[in-house]
Write a structure and sequence with these properties.
The chain has about 350 residues and is α/β, with parallel strands linked by helices. The chain has 2 domains: about 5-145, Rossmann fold (3-Layer(aba) Sandwich); about 175-339, Rossmann fold. About 35% of the residues lie in helices and about 15% in strands. The chain contains 11 helices and 12 strands. It has helices at about 10, 30-50, 70-75, 125-135, 160-170, 175-190, 215-220, 225-240, 255-265, 295-310, 320-325; strands at about 5, 25, 50-55, 75-80, 80-85, 100, 145, 195-200, 245-250, 270, 315, 335-339. The protein has a 7-stranded mixed beta sheet with strand order 1-4-5-3-2-7-6, covered by helices on one side. The protein has a 5-stranded parallel beta sheet with strand order 10-9-8-11-12, with helices on both faces. Helix 11 links the parallel strand 11 and strand 12. Helix 8 (about 225-240) packs across helix 9. The two termini are about 40 Å apart.
């Protein structure tokens, strides 16, 4: 029995609520790994509480426009009976009351980052909300908004088989323009029938991997002088222990890390892409950086997730990276090791 059903135009017309329909609106401003893993937890709650799931990724980090990022990637569908809707979300008239109560007096279609600090009274309130979602608390409100203030993402737990199954079902609805590019890139970069190890060099969001708030320092507890030093001390010893017949694929989040990897790992496979300028956030909207294109950046991110998923195993430099975990959930599920 298939767990996936495409939604036709009539089914997707939710501009007017009917009867006692109840909704979970999932809004998030993050990278693709967080978006998709968080979507699984939203779907899980919607399934348990019989709600329609509206995926509202307008004003995303990749587009920064009122166009819904979800519709750039996936088709509206039912997954195990739960409708996932991303089409015409700006036209949906959600029924009150809302939770959080902030939305009872504020237009839900306002860009999500404008009021993010006003929705909750404290971090404790956001944490309580997240815990209620994870425990399937039966909210009486007809519309629940999972917004920027509440992140449901398994940073502390590995993805289980149910989450991997959901991600693969959703992945199967991806628009053709994305999947064609990913498969073409895979066939061009990866040798046929060869063993490949993926190295995911993730150094932090702020583009300053060896600055005060760098990702490695937060996770490792010590400071490296430069990226090359880190690669020589942490990555190269792992590669030297691998069988000689393995190819190495490197997915790096900064241009400097990518260049250093190519120097220190002769013959490694890399995917040529756009990198954020030094000192800048790695997830960018096309309107924020001259010469960049948000949807192309998104396509590149998805392509690297797919390429990592096609490796025999993956080593990631950032513990609990949602990007690496997403790669480990697709297809044959390569094992992920956090360095």
């Amino acid at each position: 029995m298939s767990f996936l059903k495409k939604i036709n135009t009539a089914e997707a017309n939710l501009s007017e609520s009917k009867g006692e329909d109840r909704y979970l609106v999932y809004r998030r401003h993050a990278g693709i790994g967080d978006l998709l893993i968080g979507l699984y937890y939203s779907w899980k709650y919607a399934s348990a509480t019989k709600r329609k799931l509206i995926v509202d990724w307008r004003w995303s980090t990749y587009t920064n426009t009122s166009s819904n990022l979800f519709s750039y990637l996936f088709q509206d569908c039912f997954i195990k009976g739960v409708p996932l809707i991303g089409t015409n979300v700006d036209k949906i008239q959600y029924p009150p009351p809302f939770y959080p109560a902030f939305y009872n007096n504020t237009n839900i279609h306002t860009p999500p980052d404008i009021y993010s600090n006003q929705i909750y009274k404290s971090h404790a309130e956001k944490r309580i909300f997240a815990n209620k979602i994870c425990s399937f608390f039966p909210f009486e409100e007809r519309t629940i908004v999972m917004n920027e203030g509440v992140t449901i993402s398994p940073y502390q737990d590995p993805l289980d088989d149910k989450s991997k199954n959901f991600i693969n079902i959703l992945w199967s609805t991806m628009v053709e323009s994305m999947t064609v590019h990913m498969k073409k890139t895979h066939s061009e970069l990866f040798p046929d029938n060869e063993n490949i190890i993926g190295i995911h060099i993730r150094l932090g969001n702020n583009g300053e991997p060896f600055g005060v708030n760098n990702g490695i320092e937060r996770v490792k507890g010590y400071h490296w002088q430069d990226i090359g030093d880190y690669l020589r001390q942490e990555i190269i010893p792992i590669i030297k222990k691998l069988p000689k017949d393995y190819h190495i694929y490197v997915a790096a989040d900064t241009e400097e890390a990518n260049d250093q990897a190519k120097k220190l790992i002769p013959g490694c496979i890399t995917y040529e892409k756009w990198f954020a300028p030094p000192g800048c956030e790695i997830h960018f909207a096309s309107s924020e950086v001259s010469g960049s294109n948000g949807i192309e950046i998104l396509r590149d991110a998805l392509t690297e997730v797919f390429l990592l998923s096609q490796c025999d195993s993956v080593y990631s430099t950032l513990e609990h990276s949602a990007f690496a975990k997403l790669a480990g959930a697709i297809g044959e599920h390569p094992p992920i090791f956090f360095i």
